[in-house]
Amino acid sequence: MRLWKLKFGNKSMVLSLDAFFAVLIFVIILTASSLYLISAEKDKLTRLQLVRIGSDITTILEYQGLFDEFGNLNDAENKLNSLLSNEFQNYDTNIEVYWQEWNNKDNNVTSTIGNPNLQTTKKFIGTGKRYFISNDDSNLYFGTIKYQIAVK
Amino acid sequence: MKRGVLFTISTFLIAIILLLLAILIYRASLETEERFAEGAVINRIQDLYTSIDESIRGIFTTSQTIGVEIIKVADNTYDVKFIDSLGKSKDQNYYGQDFYEKLGEFAEFVSQDAEINLSVLNMDEIIQGQQQSDNDILKFIIKPFNIEYLHKLSSGNMDIRIRTPAYDQIDFKGISIETDTGEKEVTNIKVQPSNPESGETSFNITAKGSTGTQTWNGNLSFLDSTSFQIETRQTSPITINIDGNSNTKVIMRSTASKFEPTVNITLHGLVVPEGEEIEVTFPEDLVRITEAEFEISKIYTPSITI
């Protein structure tokens, strides 16, 4: 009876309890959203890292002169397969290389290595682009390397 | 009753504080989101910038205009070699045409992409300015010494010049000049005065011709003036002047028409101060890169490092 009176007889207490519960719910929501934000940030950092790894792979291939030969990616493909089965085992990538003769736009070719079905996967795909020049048979070529990378 | 009111007010205050904190966290998370997007774009732009920078250096090294090489000879000590030729090439309307044309085409190639725009700066000035004798043409600067290696039009001839920041600031220990006159025969290297004042800077000339090589080796004071003439049969000599009173220390010239000897000039013994790095910068303000996303525009001078 006394408890009943306390519950319904003291308006301020009821109001306080109401506020207390409201704050409690709010804190729970806030904590949950913070946890979500933190986990989302982790995910974003992983994605940024993924793009960096894609850039690293293309840089390795480019610095080894594997894009130097106009339209020929045989050596680049071998090296890429080696990298993906050793240093970068957890990644799947697709690299598209475009060459164009410096003073003749019509003399151009595009070649692709890696996994061509990467875009059809539902995973996050990191992308990037680099420019390069190659000097094949005393001819200067301008080129672009577009890469896509995803976690296997 | 009073205790209840106090409790209520306290609870409300805590609730307001929590609400404020929630708003702050929300704003911070929004900013973080923006920072992440910016970070991702900056990463992408950095990749593009780096590859453009490397490509420009690649265009330079594959062009026939001039070559630059930095050679490490000891800890913090370097030689810088310029592979060049005297006179404007027969096939070119202006000095460095081969390099600038390729660079212009590369800028057009890059600018096809909506993401980034590359333009070669001052092209008209580069072409027209070569008819004006007061312009420095294709100037390279060796940093941190600020030694300039440049070309200058003088009485219709394209000089090669080496300029120091001050007439008495000689940061190199020596200079070697190698010329190759191809089919022309080198007969003699004449020095004026015939017994130049000896100094601390080594100076070596190797002049290769069709029938043999002439050399001159010695130590000179670059605060005294000395001139050399590489004499060739049936054509005007190549002159090399060392000006002791000017910061333009070396002027190399050929007045013969249709004669373009190759010239390799090496500056020896450049000692880089601790914590600094040697680099040779291209002609200043060579290209402008504009990025579309953030509308960032940067005037850019590529450089060669070791």
Task: Set down the secondary structure blueprint.
The complex is a heterodimer of chains A (152) and B (306).
Chain A: H1 2-9, H2 11-63, H3 74-85, E1 91-101, E2 104-114, E3 126-136, E4 139-151
Antiparallel strand pairs in A: 1-2, 1-4, 3-4
Chain B: H1 2-62, E1 67-74, E2 77-85, H2 97-111, E3 116-120, H3 123-129, E4 136-143, E5 147-154, E6 157-163, E7 174-180, E8 186-192, E9 198-208, E10 213-220, E11 226-232, E12 235-242, E13 248-254, E14 262-271, E15 279-281, E16 287-291, E17 296-300, E18 303-305
Parallel strand pairs in B: 7-9
Antiparallel strand pairs in B: 1-2, 2-14, 3-16, 4-5, 4-15, 5-6, 6-13, 7-14, 8-11, 9-10, 11-12, 12-13, 15-18, 16-17
Description:
The complex is a heterodimer of chains A (152) and B (306). With 152 residues, chain A is of the alpha+beta class. Helices cover 48% and strands 30% of the residues of chain A. Chain A has three helices and four strands, in the order αααββββ. Chain A has helices at residues 2-9, 11-63, 74-85; strands spanning 91-101, 104-114, 126-136, 139-151. Chain A has a four-stranded antiparallel sheet. In chain A, a hairpin with a 2-residue loop joins strand 1 (91-101) and strand 2. In chain B, 27% of the residues are buried. In chain B, the strands form three sheets. A nine-stranded antiparallel sheet of chain B has the order 8-11-12-13-6-5-4-15-18, with no helix packed on it. In chain B, strands 1-2-14-7-9-10 form a six-stranded mixed sheet, with no helix packed on it. Chain B starts with a helix and ends with a strand. By secondary structure, chain B is α+β, with helices and mostly antiparallel strands. In chain B, strand 16 and strand 17 form a beta hairpin. Classes of the chains: A alpha+beta (152), B alpha+beta (306). Chains A and B meet through helix 2 and strand 3 of A and helix 1 and helix 2 of B.
